[in-house]
Amino acid sequence: MVPVVFGAVTIVFFMSRWMPGDPAAAYLPINATIEQKRAIEHWLGLDQPIYIQYFRYIADLFTGNWGKSSRISLGTNVWDLIWAHFPRTMELTIFALLIASFLGIKAGLISAKHRNKPKDTVIRGAALIGSQFQYFG
């Protein structure tokens, strides 16, 4: 498990560095000067060698220093944005889990009671189709 997570984190880091575009541009106005661009690159650590950027990325990942937002609320800590929405996310997750558990158990009991009959076939078909939906949890 740890090697898989480490591999995924490494792939995400290098793919984000090799993608076209300039990360510093997200923090700058269109008419920014070269000095402003270099200041943002220094602030983001993009002026460092790639291996130093990688080790800083790993250290920041584990210490919860996930940077500043460049989209939602410019300059706000990402961690603060996540925690601001965490209670509502947990509320939605718990209610969805309760509803899905209730419906799943109920459907399973009906399917077991009517094994290999039309009700069972419909429930299994619905479960198969339902399992193919994207889950963004």
UniProtKB/TrEMBL annotation:
GO terms for cellular component: plasma membrane. InterPro entries: BPD_transp_1_N. Keywords: Cell membrane, Membrane, Transmembrane, Transmembrane helix, Transport. It holds the Pfam family BPD_transp_1_N. It is a multi-pass membrane protein. The chain crosses the membrane at residues 92-109. Residues 9-93 form the ABC transporter type 1 GsiC-like N-terminal domain. It is found in: Cell membrane. This is ABC transporter type 1 GsiC-like N-terminal domain-containing protein. It comes from marine sediment metagenome.
